[in-house]
Amino acid sequence: MDAPINNDYRTYLSLCSHEYFHSWNVKRIKPECFLPYRLEAETYTNQLWAYEGITSYYDDFLTYRAGLVDEQSYLDMLSETFTRVYRSPGRFKQSIRDSSFNAWTKFYKQDENAQNAIISYYTKGALFALYLDLTLRSETQGKYTLDEVMKILWQEYALQNKGTTDDCHQRIVERLLGRDCQDLFSYLDNTDDIPLAPLLAEFGVGFTLRSSQGAQDVGGNQTKGYDIAFGAKTQSAPLGLKIVTVTQGSPAHLAGLSAGDILIAADNLQVTGQFEAQLQQYPLGQRLPLHWFRRDELMTAELVIAAAPKDTVALSITNKDKLIAWLGR
Fold first, then answer.
1. CB 157 within 8 A of CB 168
2. Ranges of H-type helices in the chain
3. Which tens digit of pLDDT belongs to each residue from 19-57?
4. What is the separation of C-alpha 221 from the centre of its chain, rounded to a whole number of angstroms?
5. Nearest to 83 by CA among 203, 223, 179
6. pTM for this model (two decimals)
7. Cα–chain-centroid distance for residue 329?
8. Residue 298, strand partner residues
C-alpha cells in the first residue's frame, strides 16, 4: 500500500464505493414495491435498512478490500459509524425497520431534535449488516459470509426480475445457517443496541466505549475524552455561542437550553469556542450560572456539572491471527 490517504479523501472513496454498490443493491436487487419504480410519488418500504444499511457497510469495507486503507484505518472508519449511532438517543425510540418506513416523513424532514427522536437506517443498518456478516462467519467457520447473501439475492431476485419481500433476507440467512434466525432479525424491530462487542472479540477486535473529546472527535483511536459533559452542539455567534442541537437528558438540556439560543456567559464570564474544554476545570456537582438570549429575551439558569457519557467507540486490533478470518490478508 502507498502512503496513507487523508480522511477527506478516504470519505470521498467510501462515497464513490457506496454509490457504485447501489448499481446492484437497489438498482437491480430491489424491494417488491419498487417494481416498477414510480417516481411521481413517495414509495414506502420497511427495507431501506437493507438497501442503504448493507450498502453503508460495504462502502467502507470495499475500500479496505481494494487495498486503499489498512486494517486499523478500516476499523477507525467503522468506529465512526458506531459513534454516530451511540451518540443518537433516538436509537432507543425508533427501530431500524420503522426508520426505513418513515424515511419520507422523518429522516428526510429532520429538525434540531432529530438525534433525540430517530435513528438512521444508514448507520444502524450498517451495524446490523456487520452483525449478520460476523454471525455468518462465526457459525459457519467462514464458509458463508454476507457476500453469499448478496449473491443469492442477485441470482434469485435480480436476475429473475423479482422484488424482495420484508422477510427474504431473513429466510436466506436461515437457509445458510440452518436454523431459525428470529433472534438475529429481532434487532430490526426492537430498539436495543446490537450485541457486536462479543462478535468482534471473536475476530480479534477490541471494542472500547469512551467519552468524547468535543465536536471534532468523531470516534476511533484511544484518546482520552472529556470528563465533564455539556450536551449541546454549538457554533460561534457574534455574542457567544449559538446552540445548534441539544441532547436529551444532558446538562445543557436540563439547564433549559434549546436549539437557536445564544449562550453568552457561564460562571459570569463570556463564553468562547473553548467553552466545553473550559468546563473540564469544574468539580462534579458544581452549579454554574448560565446566561443566554432566546430571541430578544435574556434567560438565566444553572448548569450542573456532570460526568460525560461514554458514547464514543474505538475499535482496536487485539489478535491479528483472528482478524484474518474477517478481513483476510
1. yes
2. 7-21, 48, 54-65, 71-86, 96-101, 114-117, 123-139, 146-153, 168-177, 182-185, 197-202, 251-255, 275-278, 320-327
3. 999 999 999 999 999 999 888 989 999 999 999 999 999
4. 17
5. 223
6. 0.94
7. 27
8. 293
